Amino acid sequence: MQLEFAAIKRAKKFSPNHIENDALILMRTADELIKLGAKVKFYDEEMLFGDSIKENFIFSMSREDDVIKKLKQLQKKGKVVINSPKAVKNCFRENVTTKLMVYGIPYPDSVIIKTNDFDPITLSKFNGSKVWVKRDKHIQHSEDRALATCDAERNNIVREFGRRGIKKAIVQEHLVGNEVKFYGVRGTEFFHWYYSHENFSNIKLDEERFITLARRAAETLKVDVYGGDALITPDGSIYIIDFNDWPSFAPCRDEASKAIAKMIYRKAQFKLMTPETTFVSEETKEVVDIEANFN
Known about the structure:
Elements: E1 4-8, H1 19-35, E2 39-43, E3 57-60, H2 65-76, E4 80-82, H3 85-90, H4 93-102, E5 110-114, E6 131-135, E7 145-148, H5 151-163, E8 168-173, E9 178-185, E10 191-195, H6 207-221, E11 225-232, E12 238-245, H7 253-273
Parallel strand pairs: 1-2, 1-3, 3-4
Antiparallel strand pairs: 5-8, 6-7, 6-8, 9-10, 9-11, 11-12
Helix pairs in contact: 1-7
């Protein structure tokens, strides 16, 4: 039996400076699935679709709220969606901040605030320090993330976010050290990392601990196809500073697409063998339900 997959493209607005790279990883994954004997049909994220997706297996780079809602409806009907709608929402920066801090994964000290109604006193812990100001969801423009070097600049950036219609922002401490980019596929051996910039040679990276931490973050956020950034401080401490659903995998696209396709194909086969099982149940296994914190 030939497995049929729907591939959901990412809207250009969610691919700042990565439009071609995001398109390529989706196409390469589809090519690898076809090599495994599957059939793949592409859909544009901008399309408003309901039951128009006939395929039972969907792999999606979607980040549009309306599309995520529709994919969630399809998932409830028994379709397999990777990354799942819940996982994509977990990767909104507000949710990454909340979940990683709650589950004890090292993360920079951060405060979530409303941009149009915030009291600078709530940010007093950062007074006199450099901080990052980031929008609460996915980055769409370079202005959605900014480094503030003083308190006045920080407050002005927050207010500018509000004027741009961004309702919430994350104010996050600025850490100094080696920045590392990483890419992974949950449930596989695939993991790729590299230094974002020229690294401080005197800072030692415990690679095994770093990979374990990144994979723990993926498990916490329930993200199958993921990437992110980490910061290694001079004392060797490791912090996850950013986490994303389905990045472009530009430095390792060929290897990543093979791992992603095999993982997707394996999940589809498992679903066929156990039709009563849905992958929605996997997302409800957490001991502590903090979903209310994300509304």
